[in-house]
Amino acid sequence: MDDSSQKSVPMSVYQLPVDITERNRLSLQHRLWCAFFGGLHPRLLHDAIDGRNMAAGGSFEVIDVGCGSGIWALEMAKAHPHAQIIGVDLVVDTTLSLPSNVQLRQQDIVQEGLPPAESGYDIIHARCFTGYLKDPTAFVQAAYVALKPGGLLVLADAFKPCWDDQSEPIPLLPNRGAESAPPPTGSWWAGWIYFWHQISYTHYQTVATLIEEHPGLSHVHRERYYAPMHRSCDKEREELGHISNSITLGFCRGGVDAFVASGEFTRSEVEQWIELIEAELETKPIYMMWDIAWGVKA
């Protein structure tokens, strides 16, 4: 992809790059979700989508909000060739070769709203998206309005780190006196996530909470997955560990400018912080929790 053709996005709106490196990271993150699910969706969601497909007579409308690299929309279109798939994001890859049932639209849905569907959407999918919103409940309401009766709203996002016993690490940040003798339960990665929530995910709510608290959504289901982030994980989860490790370090490197712009840390401090995280992931049994939740419009 020629990044020079892409518009810039203000850091106040989105704190990560919108370049090809970030798109590659998002595609790798898609592999992580598929490894969790054993396919494009968890089994129960797969069954619900098939049911929706049958109810729609084989032709249904799907929108992927915050579509990133576009990979989910493309794979969804391949799995359901009679569905019409729209992917929307602040920046989209205009060089992709798209099948006839996929459109990618460059659009700010916060400012412009969701693209209209003639009779509503059968599925609205948003992954690693609601955390960036100042009012995620407003998005859920807008999605609810845009759904057909019986349509599915699917939200997914990362949650937080934990140790292998599911206890929470103590967040460690630079220049807080922990570099020379960090506490045994301290984590530089947990510190990174803590600070990310201070500057980016400032109005974060779990995807399960967003789905469960909307009064118009029923048949709510939620699932949580644990991805090892350390390279020394057991053989059975080795691929998950490798993918998660790569995603994490790419995420950190992509966030350097945002951390520096906060005024809390120098670039040198942030880069050293990433080195501490990389060393931590080599040895410590740390995991990241990832959540998916969905509900049906009554």
UniProtKB/TrEMBL annotation:
Q: Which InterPro entries match?
A: SAM-dependent_MTases_sf (IPR029063)
Which is one Pfam family of this protein?
Methyltransf_23
Which N-terminal stretch is annotated as signal sequence? Answer: none
Q: Name one GO molecular function term.
A: methyltransferase activity
Query: Sorted alphabetically, which Gene3D superfamilies does this protein's record hold?
Result: Vaccinia Virus protein VP39
Q: Which CDD domains match?
A: AdoMet_MTases (cd02440)
- Keywords of the record: Methyltransferase, Transferase
From the UniProt record, give one GO term of the biological process aspect. Answer: methylation
Q: What is the name listed in the Swiss-Prot or TrEMBL entry for this protein?
A: S-adenosyl-L-methionine-dependent methyltransferase
Query: What is the species of this protein?
Result: Mycena metata
